[in-house]
Structures are given as C-alpha cells and as structure tokens.
C-alpha cells in the first residue's frame, strides 16, 4: 500500500495551490482527481488578490505563460446607470490586475505545473471513502478502470469543490442563509466587443436587483455569458433546450445587441442551489479548503480567490502540524477564512437587498469610499485598515441610507 505525507482531494485551484506549496516544503504529496483534465468548470473571472497565492505557491509563472485575458477592473450596470472600478485605484496595496480564464485551460495549467514540481497527480481517481485518525489517514479511491485502491497519508486536504467529499462523508454540510439561486451560462462569439469590454467583467443588474448577467471576455475573442436569478427563473430559462436563455441574451436591451448574432460555443449549462456552508472546516487528520467549505454566490467572483487563499493557508497549517507544532485549527485557519467569507457575505447580501447598488449607482460616489470598495472587489477582504472590510456588516446599509436621503432632498 502506498504511503505519502499528504493526500489532496481535487486538482482545482484550492488543491493545486495547497499541493504545490507543500511540495516546496519537501513533502511527498499525492492529488487524487476524479475527472480527466481538461474538464469544464465554472468560475472564470479571477480577483487580483489570488495572484499573491499563485505566486507564493510557485504557480504564477506557468499561468503567465498562457497569456490569458488580462482583467483590470469590473463594470456594474443597471439600465443606463454605470459604475466602473479600476483595480489600479485601490485602497489596499496589492495586485492591480488579474485574468479572466477558461477554467479548463487554467486548471489544466495549474495541475500540469503542480505535477512538474513533483506532486503525484492522479486523474480519473475518485475518492470513495476516508478513515481519519490523529496520525494515519486511509483513503479509498476508484481509478478509470473501476479498480479500487487504498492510499495512506499523515494528513488530508479536502479540496474537492462541489464534490464536497469530506462534508458529505462526515456530515459537515450546513445550509446557506441565502435564497436558493441558480445560473445558466454558455460561451459565445463576441465580434462586437470593444477594447474596454475586453479588460473588464461586465455585470448587468435587472429584475429589481433579483437577477443579473455576467459577460466575461476571454483572450480568444469569445465571452462567457451567464444569467443568475431565483431558481425558478433559471429552470424556466433552461427549458426547451435553453430557448429562454438564448432569446434573452440576444434581445436583452442593456446588452445593446452585443450578442444578437453570436454563435454559441456549446449548449448552455445550468447549475442550481450552489450556496452552501459547512459546520467546521477541519477535524482529526484533515482540513478542507475552497468550495468544500463555504460557497456564497458568484456575484463578486470571489470563489477562486477563496479557493487559493484557503488552499494556501491550509497547506501552511498542515506544514506546521507535520513539523510537530500544536496547530490551533479553529483560530489560525477556520476563523481567518471565515472572516473573509463574512465580508463577502455582507456584500452579497447588499447586492441583492439593493444597498450595494444604491451606493455604486449613486449620482456621485466619494473617491475614497470607491477605492476602499474597490479593494474588497479585488479580494483584499482581510485588510482591517479598510473600513469597508472592518465594518462590512453595517457600512453598506448605513451609507445606502444616507445616499437615499440626499437623493430625495435633491429631487424635492
Ligand atoms: P473546484 O474547482 O470545483 O475543483 C475541485 C476538484 O475536485 C474538481 O476538479 C473535481 O473533479 C474534484 N473532485 C470532486 N469530487 C472528487 C472526488 N470524490 N474524488 C476526487 N476528486 C474529486 N469563482 C470565481 O472566482 N469567479 C467567477 O467568475 C465565478 N463564477 C461562478 C459562477 C457560478 C454560476 C458559480 C456557481 C460559481 C462561480 N465561481 C466563480 C465559484 C467557483 O466555481 C468556485 O469557487 C471554484 O471553482 C472553487 O475551486 P475549488 O478548487 O475549491 O474547487
């Protein structure tokens, strides 16, 4: 039976960042990945903060070579209203750009580079069961031929994303407090794209803050277009071979004909009820990272950045644990990751309640506030010097209230 230091479940961004970091520290690491890569994955717009995690785990240079579409900001729109954020105009010192990526290519690059560094990456190996104890973990998995294998490790990092291997096996999932929503999406030809539209993610709000569309441009001239809304709306758009989605994308007024004649690169896919939480992020012999922990909502493109942030921190804590240190997993891992998630939770809630939109679509927005909000949108949600991070739970409703009062006064 094979014995290694660490088994990582899943070769997405969380798993590859964790595995690469640990390999750098000299451990023997195996990744077990259920799918054959390249495989489709949703989550195509990155945030600047994740560049730091890619750099620290030694994966940044390999991604740079792929010349993915550069992303320098985010544009929010509601009817004729528009608010553009530039990552170069930020409160927190950090990266001012990132990429928009087809995840099949991005994740393949991360996995190949991780393997090149010496991590054993086994594709088409699905983890079926796990037995954990203080210092010996036993993992059973099935390979592409259906053969069952067992591998042992000192520690497990579960980065299985939507597969949620350990939350399922150990009954650790927790329902989300958000309304169950869904998304329907495809990649489209984008011949009408302007230079500006190539550098940004475009988000169009409609349906009284309940629904929105993303347009995420790729370097090959195609664009990912997704509609997010209540579960029932997405089911309706997906009926009859996604006719509702196709009609909507081609005729939605705010897109101004951008996709009217665009061919689809594949038939639309949809996903429902993705928001989910976790009772705890660690246990004896294991830790979870990325979407195995909590996923909130796609509105602020925070998923991959949380995957890389938690992948990296989980690896650092695993390193300390394997060095014989007494790691306080709750304080040094879970509370840190939870803090960042909670900041985004306030912004997601603020998006759908309308408070965030009241602020960004106001007649005027104070430039200091805008830069501070921009840092949240860039993923720097651990910067306690930023009042829009520190007071995340109160600042949006308070500011929105003030703006509404001022705008009422102007109207009178
Ligand atoms: P994943 O990327 O899901 O990787 C997990 C890997 O584990 C997979 O390859 C899977 O095959 C493997 N696995 C699963 N089960 C097993 C098993 N039993 N054994 C072995 N391997 C297994 N995020 C952004 O940053 N930007 C966006 O624009 C964005 N848009 C989104 C839009 C929608 C509609 C949704 C729902 C999410 C979006 N996200 C976005 C979130 C993003 O998809 C995830 O947060 C991100 O992919 C999480 O990365 P991960 O490494 O945790 O998991």
UniProtKB/TrEMBL annotation:
InterPro entries hit by this protein: FAD-bd, FAD/NAD-bd_sf, Flavin-dep_Halogenase_NPB
Alphabetical keyword list: Oxidoreductase
Gene3D superfamilies listed in its UniProt record: FAD/NAD(P)-binding domain
Domain FAD-binding: 4-161
Organism from which the protein derives: Dyadobacter helix
EC number: 1.14.13.9
Name listed for the protein in its UniProt record: Kynurenine 3-monooxygenase
Gene Ontology MF term list: FAD binding; kynurenine 3-monooxygenase activity
First-level EC class: oxidoreductase
Keyword Phosphoprotein assigned: no
UniProt lineage: Bacteria, Pseudomonadati, Bacteroidota, Cytophagia, Cytophagales
């Amino acid at each position: 039976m094979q014995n290694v230091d660490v088994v990582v479940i899943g070769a997405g961004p969380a798993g590859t960042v964790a595995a690469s970091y640990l390999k750098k520290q000299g451990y023997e690491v195996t990744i077990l990945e259920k799918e054959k890569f390249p495989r489709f994955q949703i989550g195509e717009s990155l945030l600047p903060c994740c560049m730091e995690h890619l750099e620290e785990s030694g994966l940044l240079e390999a991604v740079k070579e792929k010349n993915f579409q550069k992303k320098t900001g985010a544009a929010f729109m509601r009817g004729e209203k528009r608010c553009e954020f530039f990552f170069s105009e930020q409160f927190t010192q950090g990266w001012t750009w990132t990429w928009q990526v087809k995840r099949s290519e991005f994740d393949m690059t991360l996995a190949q580079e991780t393997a090149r560094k010496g991590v054993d990456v086994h594709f088409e190996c699905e983890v079926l069961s796990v037995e954990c104890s203080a210092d010996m973990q036993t993992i059973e998995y099935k390979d592409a031929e259906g053969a069952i294998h067992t591998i042992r490790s000192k520690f497990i990092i579960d980065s299985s994303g939507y597969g949620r291997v350990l939350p399922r096996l150990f009954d650790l999932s927790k329902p989300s407090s958000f309304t169950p929503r869904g998304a329907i999406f495809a990649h489209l030809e984008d011949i009408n794209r302007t230079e500006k539209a190539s550098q940004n993610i475009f988000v169009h709000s409609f349906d009284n803050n309940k629904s929105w569309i993303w347009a995420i441009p790729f370097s090959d001239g195609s664009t990912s277009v997704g509609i997010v809304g209540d579960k029932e709306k997405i089911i309706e758009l997906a009926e009859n071979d996604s006719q509702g989605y196709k009609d909507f994308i081609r005729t939605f007024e705010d897109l101004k004909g951008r996709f009217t004649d665009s061919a689809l690169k594949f038939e639309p896919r949809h996903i429902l009820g993705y928001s989910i939480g976790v009772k705890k992020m660690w246990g004896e012999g294991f830790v979870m990272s990325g979407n195995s922990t909590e996923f909130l909502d796609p509105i602020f493109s925070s998923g991959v950045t949380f995957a890389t942030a938690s992948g990296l921190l989980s690896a650092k804590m695993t390193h300390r644990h394997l060095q014989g240190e007494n790691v306080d997993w709750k304080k040094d891992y879970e509370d840190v990751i939870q803090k960042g998630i909670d900041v985004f939770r306030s912004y997601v809630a603020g998006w759908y309640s309308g408070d965030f939109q009241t602020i960004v679509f106001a007649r005027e927005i104070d430039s200091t506030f805008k830069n501070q909000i921009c840092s949240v949108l860039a993923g720097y949600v651990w910067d306690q010097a930023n009042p829009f991070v520190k007071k995340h739970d109160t600042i949006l409703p308070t500011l929105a209230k003030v703006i509404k009062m001022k705008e009422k006064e102007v109207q009178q």
